[in-house]
Amino acid sequence: MAHDHHQHHDHHHHHPEIAGDRRVAVAVGVNLLLTLVQIVAGVFSGSLALIADAIHNLSDAMSLVIAFLARRIARRPADARMTFGYGRAEVVAALINYVTLVVVALWLIAEGVQRLFNPVEVEGWAVVIVAGVALVIDTVTALLVFRLSKDSMNIRAAFLHNVMDALGSIAVIVAGTLILLYDWRLVDPLVTLAIAGYILWHVSREIGPVIRVLMMGSPDSPALTDVMAMIEAEAGVVGLHHVHLWRMQEHELALEAHVVFSDVAPDALRQRLKARLADQFGIAHTMLELEQPDAACRDAAWIGH
Asked: What DSSP character marks residue 245?
């Protein structure tokens, strides 16, 4: 019976993740098809904005592939090579995708500036029609991964690719319409530059937390000062040093600290502190080294080593 229960639990645990993988896989296929259509239409119409949007869509598809692979790798259990597990694979994937966005944006800026000085003829109707199709597909793709993006910086990076593509498609439609109505050929590179600027703005907001996790920085919440104050306020604690608070992966907090104690049973103190850290701050992975005053580290740093 115990064996059956274990299988039943695993089935329910993995079902949402498998469903999420399917959503990402569908989004990849849709983006690859859209990229092909846009490149062909962009070449025939002469629209840099449309080709730029196609290249960005290709980066979307690749970002979703990276996100998909990272989700699968992150579920591997810890082993002798990766004793902390593979959860940070998703954080690494997010960093790769944000760096890719920066490269794409810089390429768009270079091409847009060149077209400002050398504008070319653009077929407005082709731009409007294909960009309209792209807008629909980008929106559908974004909706496929929206729910997953709320709890994963990995999927959120891929999601931002699609959201920005959808907004970029709107901008391309506006540019094509203005070309049709007023023959404003400069609007094509101007829209391209606007898309690139928007990409860089979003990346600047999102890449910081990703780097912070990889650098083992302390989280914004809970505040390290609050955690340390709670430990020092515990009965029997007379000192605290060598404190480290970091994210083992996006949703798993870890704490390491040397705790100096007096007039209390060390095992009981350790258990109380671990229970309070888990209940109050959600820190489930704790490593507490308890020291008596006469054996405590000398001239130890309060934070770090």
From this structure: E
